[in-house]
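Researcher: Here's the sequence for the chain we discussed earlier.
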Amino acid sequence: MNNFCILFITLFVSIQTYASSEIAILGEPLSKEYALNGDYYKVFYQTGKMATSYSAVCDMGQAIQNSKQKDWYTNKPIQGLKLELRARAAIIDIDGKVKPIGFVVVTKNKDVLITFSPLGEMVNGKWEGDIFSSWSGVSTDIKVFSGYIGRAGSANFDLLDGNGFFYKTGNTNQPDYFLSNCKRITKNNLPIYNWK
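Model: Thanks. This is the structure I predict for it:
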């Protein structure tokens, strides 16, 4: 009877663990595969292939609105404050292009202050959405979102001029921070993930 109870509890915990979607956690080693919530895809897994993609980093400063021109802002730099897009892996999108996936963080003097959640939301106590954060792998116009449609924050910048904005929440049109000196950092040998 005791063996049956232990087996049942182990099986129940295994099923519950598999049924909940996972999110890749900053600072933890990458898993070979992650369980997903959903009817079609069940597992997000490493394919064994590698790709070259990129991370990005921007300096952050206070966005000060121009009193004479609406939607114009100036930048008051904040020493050591940065937005970092840290690619840890990649995925091939439907157009066959490499899309970087990983972690989006705001740091000050290298300490992580904010970690973006992947696109998705909690539904009935379970995460439904992406495993990692992601951004464009081919465009110079980069947008990243935290949580469901950027509800918990977003950032956008252009690598051509190196400038953009950071928003703490998705409830405002006015940026909280100015992004500057944005640049791409090439990352080689990123593991490619796919769904099955």
